[in-house]
């Protein structure tokens, strides 16, 4: 298995990543600019990610921000190959994710990186404990151990007393806490969060942001966080990248991007967000 030669402080590295949704994806040469223009002009083909490169440091909250259709959700899904990249490299924790075979990728997903989705992804017929412990069950962890670890995570996200509740009995904010506990229980060093709070009411959303900041102080994960909300990005992020049409148009500290937008698009994004 390939291993990275990059510094030990890098948790995620993306190199020249492309994702093209097209029936001819496998035969496309991304160096052929004429063909790419044809794809870009087609109504049934989409260039979702265009030559994206980035590095995320261990322990930081890295926020990717952009409007709907900017490519941010395609990017986060490519990191764990929930959708397959067209070309490029993805390195996480020193392993080349894009080079893993099916079995290796399954094992990597179970232990190295966990995902939190916007729509929770909870199993409706399992209670809170069983939802949180489900990943451990897939790993073959003995029930007593996985229940013990799950109860620790349930306590960490503030759901004591709700262990036997089912998802339909919980509010949206509580369901998302279950999703976060499930992501944390495997003790994966990387947490991928795809607009996890966007479906919540504003007050609950603010509470969840506060709780994530408190959690991060305790667990110190590398968090790759996708959002379309500038205030959320500034509140949570150490650094952020702004995407447009599948490309990163600016990357830097949140304050630097606000103070020094790289172009008119970023300027409008920042002004509208404020």
Please give a structural write-up.
There is one protein chain. With 274 residues, the chain is of the alpha/beta class. It folds into 2 domains: 10-93 and 189-273, Rossmann fold (3-Layer(aba) Sandwich); 119-188. It is 39% helix and 23% strand. The protein has 11 helices and 10 strands. The protein has helices spanning 33-41, 72-79, 102-111, 128-132, 134-138, 143-156, 172-185, 202-219, 230-236, 254-259, 264-273; strands at 10-21, 46-57, 61-65, 87-92, 95-96, 113-116, 190-194, 222-227, 239-244, 247-252. The strands form 2 sheets. A 6-stranded mixed sheet has the order 6-7-8-3-9-10, with helices on both faces. Strands 2-1-4-5 form a 4-stranded antiparallel sheet. A hairpin with a 2-residue loop joins strand 9 and strand 10. The longest helix is centred in the last third of the chain and has 18 residues, at 202-219. The chain is globular.
């Amino acid at each position: 298995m390939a291993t990275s030669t990059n510094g030990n402080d890098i948790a995620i590295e993306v190199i020249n990543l492309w994702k093209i949704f097209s029936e001819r994806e496998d035969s496309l040469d991304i160096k052929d600019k004429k063909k790419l223009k044809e794809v870009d002009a087609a109504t049934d083909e989409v260039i979702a990610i265009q030559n994206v490169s980035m590095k995320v440091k261990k322990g930081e909250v890295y926020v990717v921000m952009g409007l709907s259709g900017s490519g941010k959700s395609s990017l986060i899904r490519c990191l764990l190959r929930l959708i397959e990249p067209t070309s490029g490299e993805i390195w996480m924790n020193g392993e080349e994710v894009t080079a893993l075979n099916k079995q290796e990728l399954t094992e990597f997903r179970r232990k190295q990186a966990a995902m939190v989705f916007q729509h929770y992804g909870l199993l409706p017929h399992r209670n809170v404990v069983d939802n949180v412990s489900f990943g451990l069950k897939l790993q073959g962890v003995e029930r007593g151990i996985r229940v013990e670890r799950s109860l620790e995570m349930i306590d960490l996200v503030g759901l004591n007393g709700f262990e036997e509740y089912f998802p339909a009995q919980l509010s949206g904010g509580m369901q998302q806490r279950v999703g976060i506990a499930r992501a944390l229980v495997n003790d994966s060093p990387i947490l991928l969060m795809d607009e996890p709070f966007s479906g919540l009411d504003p007050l609950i959303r603010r509470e969840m942001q506060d709780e994530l900041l408190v959690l991060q102080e305790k667990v110190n994960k590398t968090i790759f966080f996708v959002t379309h909300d500038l205030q959320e990005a500034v509140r949570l992020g150490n650094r952020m990248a702004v995407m447009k049409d599948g490309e990163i148009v600016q990357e830097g500290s949140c304050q630097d991007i606000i103070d020094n937008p790289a172009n008119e698009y970023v300027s409008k994004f920042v002004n509208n967000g404020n």
